[in-house]
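so i finally got all the pieces together for this one. its two components total, 402 residues if u count the protein bits. some of the lines might not be protein, just check the labels. i wanna see the whole assembly predicted at once instead of chain by chain like last time, that was a mess tbh
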Amino acid sequence: MSSEGRRAPTGHATLQPRVSDALARATLEELAVTGYARLTVEGVARRARVGKAAVYRRWPSKQQMTMAALSQLVVPIADVPDSGSLREDVRASLRALHDWLVDPVYGAVVPDLTSAAAHDAGLAEALWREVGQPRRELASAVLARAVRRGELPGDLDVEMALDVIAGPLYWRLAVRRVPVDDSYLDDLSAWLLRALGASEV
Amino acid sequence: MSSEGRRAPTGHATLQPRVSDALARATLEELAVTGYARLTVEGVARRARVGKAAVYRRWPSKQQMTMAALSQLVVPIADVPDSGSLREDVRASLRALHDWLVDPVYGAVVPDLTSAAAHDAGLAEALWREVGQPRRELASAVLARAVRRGELPGDLDVEMALDVIAGPLYWRLAVRRVPVDDSYLDDLSAWLLRALGASEV
């Protein structure tokens, strides 16, 4: 139990980053076990060994607590460093997506939130704004670099390209739940470059 | 309330197909509302206006009841008639997948079962055996026809081809929940044919 969790704040509370980090991790771990429908602020606070006040001082609801955890821990995964080559960037993006979806925590959290969002328009909107859109902007940067290098057509349909890159691996790992090996990721990269109309495949 | 639902069977019961059909539809409608975790035999029987015995005479558990409904109503959707052209067959497959995923009932049921299966290995195994595998065999037939016509390479990686065809639309409609129009399906067909290495694109 941290001191921050026990004491009520006097005046402007200083939010300890260490506690915020612990809460973000605890939120995702708790989500993986209980699912969003049964997620509670109490359960997350207990897992993070802080009081409920430590949560409520940061976020007024479980939805905002969840979005904060996702935007801190999930969005940066989509940031792929510039390798100078579309082929390498796509391969690294697939690897990052793979590692995310087979992770024991995320592998349960992502399908659960997808399902919860189908019944909860507010959650769906928040997921898109806080997670989907920022991840998509990072992934778009990979394509924009390739267009600038002349590896992809200037009139590339970026929306479709992002669906085509992410979809097959999501279907395989999160829906069918069939594992893949490195050679699958290599071959899939080549197939996706052809789909995108990459100049040098 | 049907007579079959009220009376206990004497000796070998005759299972009325009309009641079985009503139960299959009621199972999916109830699933769309409650989700798999809260699905009950009672709820399905009530929705179908039969007694619980009508369910239990057919299936001993909610898992088997669910699989029966899916294999009756979901598997046939993947059966695309032979148009004589890979492009037309892929386009028809995408249309069928689209209509399935945007359906108000299936659009909720599919992500929910995917999420439930992440926590329930028995459900995951049954879903694959009763739904995934039969659907995949129907979809494979589309590719086998194209290989025979010389439109696809003889050494096509069929597993990857099926992931690449289904994944983008699932990602778009069931995960991102962004609608698509006919021209998206046309363009996606062309991208997928390139990915598959189709001879005449």
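Chain A has two domains: 3-61, 74-196.
Chain A touches chain B through 39 residues (CB under 8 Å).
anyway lmk what u think
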